[in-house]
């Protein structure tokens, strides 16, 4: 991964941490391997709210069919980076 791509990934990750922090995390520390459902306990309504916030923050559209491939914060960051690349 190039330095530019790595920097973009880190910015996306920080943005996601900010968005995820508004959801109750209990004693779970947000990190790349944090599972959105198993660790954070996000339900389908939380996921839909999160997707809306991601779309607004990053100015992208997240197709619902990609959600089946997203389990962790890292998976989500990679998907956002991919979608940003498609829009540029």
Describe this structure in words.
- Helices cover 55% and strands 0% of the residues.
- It is mainly α and 88 residues long.
- The chain has one domain (3-87): Non-ribosomal Peptide Synthetase Peptidyl Carrier Protein, Chain A (Orthogonal Bundle).
- Helix 1 crosses helix 2 (44-58) and helix 1 (3-20) packs across helix 3 (73-87).
- The two termini are 18 Å apart.
- The mean pLDDT is 92.
- Keywords: Phosphopantetheine, Phosphoprotein.
- Pfam families: PP-binding.
- Residues 7-84 form the Carrier domain.
Sheet of most strands: none
Assign an overall shape: globular
CATH architecture: Orthogonal Bundle
Question: How far is the first residue's CA from the last residue's CA?
Answer: 18 Å
């Amino acid at each position: 991964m190039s330095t530019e791509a790595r920097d973009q990934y880190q910015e996306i990750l920080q943005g996601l941490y900010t968005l995820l922090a508004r959801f109750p995390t209990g004693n779970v520390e947000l990190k790349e391997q944090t599972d959105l459902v198993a660790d954070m306990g996000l339900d389908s309504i939380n996921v839909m709210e999160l997707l809306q916030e991601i779309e607004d923050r990053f100015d992208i559209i997240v197709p619902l069919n990609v959600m089946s491939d997203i389990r962790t914060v890292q998976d989500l960051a990679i998907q956002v980076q991919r979608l940003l690349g498609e829009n540029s």
